[in-house]
Structures are given as structure tokens and as C-alpha cells.
Design a protein that fits this description.
The chain has 192 residues and is mostly helical. It has five helices and two strands; from the N terminus they run αααααββ. The radius of gyration is 29 Å and the shape is elongated. Keywords: Membrane, Transmembrane, Transmembrane helix. Pfam families: DDE_Tnp_1_7.
Length: 192
């Protein structure tokens, strides 16, 4: 290539192109072939960057790990989409939702283990419950739905009395009144 400062030689090796032929526009045939077929690599890189799990870090093994995870997610999504389109056309989900489901499936075993640990902090259990939609194994029966609740309206036991939030909802474990903001199948005090 001709640069502003000097002309540099570029060496190209290919097991496909045996003769050094030059096309009409002055570029070697090997360069033209590369330019025609590189779209797959560019599309793959664009898909990896669009939804990436990478985080800023100074540790190169972690960067490598993030790159492997991004590549694995894109590849598995392509396989998933092709399989779904063959089985049930038009039923595939968006890649962002696919990534979310894969992430939840990967963290669910550890989340269940931490959720059922007796020494785990209550706030951590609440966060796990919100992210993974898990309930501790001590919850027991599901309890009645909101439409079936015949309880009288009382103040939420977790809200400040100044808020004066009245509710029919009850914790399924301890039966304390809780407003919809604090309502899970069990109240936040029983998540232990």
C-alpha cells in the first residue's frame, strides 16, 4: 500500500490462491476474495458487541473469558434459532431474551443453594428472589390468590405508619399484613 511516508510490502499467504493474479482495479485476487467473504466475521463481531457481557477489567484472563462467553452465546443463539425455525416457524425469541434465559439457567443452581442457606442475610435472599424468581424451600403452600383473600383491610406491617398503606394481603408463612410493594408469597421478615 502507498502511505504518505513510504511504500511498504505486504506479504499474503493462501492455500487457495496459487497464482498471483491481479483484478481490473489493481488489487490482487486474494484481497478481493477476502473482502467478499469477510462479512461473516464482521457480522459476528457486531453481534458480540451489540449485547456483551464484558466488563472493564485490567486482568487479561477475564477479558479472554468474557470474549469466550460472548462468542458462545452468539453461536448458541444461532443454533437455537435454526432449530426453533425448523420445529416451529415464527416462534423464536429475541437474542436479548435468549441471553437472559441462559444467564438465569446458569445462575439458578447457586442461587437456590444461597437462598436456602440458613445463615444467608435477609436482604440477599430478597434480591435473589427478585432476580431469579425463587422462593425459599420453607414457604410451604402457595396460599390464596389476591382475588380469594377475604381478610379485612389493615395497615402494612412493613411500611411506616405515616404512609398508612392498608392491605388485604398476608404473608403466607407468618400471616402478617403486607402491602403489594412488600408482598411475596412470604413477607421479607420470613425470608430466612
Amino acid at each position: 500500500p502507498n502511505t504518505a511516508t513510504a511504500k511498504k510490502n505486504v506479504l499474503l499467504m493462501s492455500s487457495m490462491h496459487r497464482q498471483p493474479t491481479v483484478t481490473d482495479n489493481g488489487k490482487p485476487d486474494i484481497i478481493m476474495f477476502y473482502n467478499e467473504t469477510k462479512a461473516g466475521v464482521d457480522t459476528f463481531d457486531q453481534m458480540c458487541v451489540q449485547y456483551s457481557c464484558s466488563r472493564k477489567t485490567n486482568m487479561w484472563p477475564l477479558c479472554l473469558f468474557f470474549g469466550i462467553i460472548n462468542a458462545a452465546i452468539v453461536n448458541s443463539f444461532i443454533i437455537y434459532r435454526e432449530n426453533i425455525e425448523k420445529a416451529r416457524p415464527g416462534n423464536s425469541i429475541k437474542r436479548r431474551m435468549y441471553m437472559r434465559e441462559v444467564a438465569l439457567q446458569l445462575i439458578r443452581p447457586l442461587a437456590e443453594e444461597r437462598m436456602n442457606a440458613p445463615t444467608q442475610h435477609r436482604q440477599v435472599k430478597l434480591i435473589i428472589n427478585q432476580v431469579c424468581f425463587l422462593n425459599p424451600s420453607t414457604t410451604g403452600a402457595a396460599g390464596p390468590s389476591a382475588a380469594e383473600m377475604k381478610e379485612r383491610m389493615v395497615r402494612c406491617s412493613l411500611c411506616p405508619s405515616k404512609a398508612d398503606k392498608k392491605t388485604r394481603f398476608r404473608c403466607h408463612a407468618c400471616r402478617q399484613p403486607v402491602c403489594p410493594q412488600h408482598y411475596f408469597p412470604i413477607c421479607s421478615d420470613c425470608v430466612r
